[in-house]
Amino acid sequence: MASGTGLESLVDQxxxxxxxxxxxxxxxxxxxxxxxxIILDESHERVYSKRFCFEGVQQLLLGLYIxxxxxxxxxxxxxxxxxxxxxxxxxRAHPLKPVIH
Length: 101
Known about the structure:
The structure is a single chain. By secondary structure, the protein is mainly beta. Helix content is 6%, strand content 41%. The protein is built from one helix and five strands. It has one helix at residues 80-85, and strands at residues 14-19, 24-32, 38-47, 58-67, 72-77. Strands 4-3-2-1-5 form a five-stranded antiparallel sheet, with no helix packed on it. The longest helix is centred in the last third of the chain and has 6 residues, at 80-85. The N and C termini lie far apart (28 Å). 9% of the residues are buried.
């Protein structure tokens, strides 16, 4: 594994990744490399969309998932207790817009 990226302390913990195209992917960090390519296990995508505004946040199961480092905007640690208490069916939000370079 790479050093100096700050991800070492997050291995085997649940994290949230916001990608450059605005996707929110949540999963357990299993590994990463020097290019910040990330391997997630037990992952799912949380879909915030206008068309789901009456249903809340949709979760699409992904399982074992690899995200290229150049497609990652933000990596965040998730408090699993708080996350478990969220009622995603009642959360409403517009989807994130893509990052424009």
